[in-house]
Specification:
Activation of anaerobic ribonucleoside-triphosphate reductase under anaerobic conditions by generation of an organic free radical, using S-adenosylmethionine and reduced flavodoxin as cosubstrates to produce 5'-deoxy-adenosine. About 20% of the residues lie in helices and about 20% in strands. By secondary structure, the chain is an alpha/beta fold. The chain binds iron/sulfur cluster (SF4).
Length: about 160
């Protein structure tokens, strides 16, 4: 998997103070996409074991407490990204105490493959659906257009 940006401290992409990773690769080609440079799987830089370890380390940091991890792009659920994303979210849940994981994807929840659904077992919030320019609304929170849905998964 390749990625474009990693922010070790981020207060924009999700609630609270977070770590945020923007991955490379997206098939959806939404009109008005603000992140076109991430569409190619080969764009950006290689996501290394060192960076995976760094994210875990940052989430475990007790001096600058993060609420969780945000995964965006590009599309973290691009089929070619799923194995790496699955390994990362499993580590976050196993090694980082009480961190939430938010994930943005252009796929709809009800069209995810079994492989993509395996990631959902480990995330807390999924924002799904393509960005539709005609439905764009700057007043929306955590989503760009009104067709997208913020799914709070696994709520007790
Ligand atoms: S899903 Fe997101 S990154 Fe992909 S084309 Fe649409 S807006 Fe851009």
């Amino acid at each position: 998997m390749n990625y474009h940006r990693y922010y070790s401290i981020d207060v924009v992409n999700g609630p609270g103070t977070r770590c945020t990773l923007f991955v490379a690769g997206c098939v959806h080609q939404c009109r008005g996409c603000y992140n076109k440079s991430t569409w190619s799987l080969n764009s950006g830089c290689l996501f290394t074991q060192e960076l995976e370890d760094q994210i875990i380390h940052d989430l475990q940091n007790k001096e600058i407490k993060r609420q969780g991890l945000s995964l965006s792009g590009g599309d973290p659920l691009h089929p070619q990204n799923v194995p790496t994303i699955l390994k990362l979210v499993q580590r976050v849940k196993n090694e980082c105490d009480a961190k939430d994981i938010w994930l943005w994807t252009g796929y709809k929840l009800d069209e995810l493959t079994a492989q993509q659904q395996a990631v959902l077992a480990h995330i807390d919030v999924l924002i799904d659906g393509k960005f539709v320019q005609d439905l764009a609304d700057p007043k929306l929170i955590w989503r760009g257009s009104s067709n997208q849905v913020v799914h709070h998964l696994h709520q007790k």
